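As a warm-up, study this chain.
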Amino acid sequence: MSVTARLMEALRRSDMRTRVRCGASLLTSSFTQCRGFCQKEANSIRPLEGVKILDLTRVLAGPFATMILGDLGAEVIKVEKPGSGDDTRFWGPPFVGIESSYFLSVNRNKKSIAVNMKDPKGTKIIKELAQACDVLIENYIPGKLSEMGLGYEDIQKTAPHIIYCSITGYGQSGPLFKRAGYDAIACAMSGLMHITGPEDGDPVRPGVAMTDLATGLYAHGAIMAGLLQRSKTSKGMHIDCNLLSSQVACLTHVAANFLNGEVEAKRWGTAHGSIVPYQSFKAKDGYVVIGAGNDQQFSTVCKILNLPELISDPRFKTNKLRVQYRKHLLEILAKRFSEKTTSEWLQLFEGSGIPYGPINSIKQVFSEPQVVHNGLILEMDHPTAGKISVPGPAVRFNSFNLSDPQPPPVLGQHTAEVLKNVLGYEDDYIAELIQAKTISQNTVN
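Now compare it with the structure written out below.
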């Protein structure tokens, strides 16, 4: 594709204001002048502006992925069931007013439309939206959407450009593909639960749904790759993301230890199987986590703890030996850490170059100066809940910002708006669809 063609494609994908201004520049000035203007405009344009996402997902993995895409500027149209909507709207307490905190946490920067997809007219709406969108993401059991005429093969016929991303429990085929996918089950089957928990205790599920979140991150990245690939080939694709594969892939070195050395993994609590010391220690009033990833760091730890004799102890000279004599070393370190408060230890480790930190409660997390500095408390004005706060985006960019987030929508808040602006439906026909209960519209201001 030529440079001019690339520019024209960028103009096509941009918002109308930029299109008009850049189009005028093309007509009245040189290409170089237009390119300079577009570069200035780029400072206020997020990378996915102009990209439309048709979001048929519920609960966590899919909504987490589409929320990230929305943060990056995509227009996310969230399709929900009239009357009930996303399951997580009812997952509580706690609730903020009538809204569940769970739903609020992963659904900012989205528009909600309430459509009965089992109604043929509702199916038609979804197909028409797919033609107008760049991405369709869904998390139904394989085959369920095909029964409605909304599977990849169905959508691809009329929207060959579509990036169609499916999120399932186990994949699109295989002995388990028809099973419903839930985080806790995939967490167990993938081995994550086997390696999580106290060394001599029962398996433990992580405190947040890490398998769902990992799958959402994989889906977000895969969709970005799909959009990039389509820019090269002009063709859409089907993306298969699933909980089991995502979590097994995240086993990394634990998996490699078994695959290459047949070393079965075990639970270590807060400790590490291959590095010592690398764990939490109980202080007088809390816990401190430290990590000594090399011999020099171990020497520094010993000096901070005022245990210089450990540096020359032949049992602890190398990390391999420290792993071998783990029990003896940890007994000594544990006793020493118990003699001071958490804040005293934090002061002693400050500036040492050693990785260290406290085990914070959630209240303490959001009082951490670095958390506040990083903008991880995101405030929004919600139409029914009032002012709400949720965890903010984890990544920052120097060429654009993620400010002015839109609050999570109430169910069906944008139904009429989307049908009018995206599909060109007339008010009378929208009223007919509401009367027939094919769609519903929330009239909240």
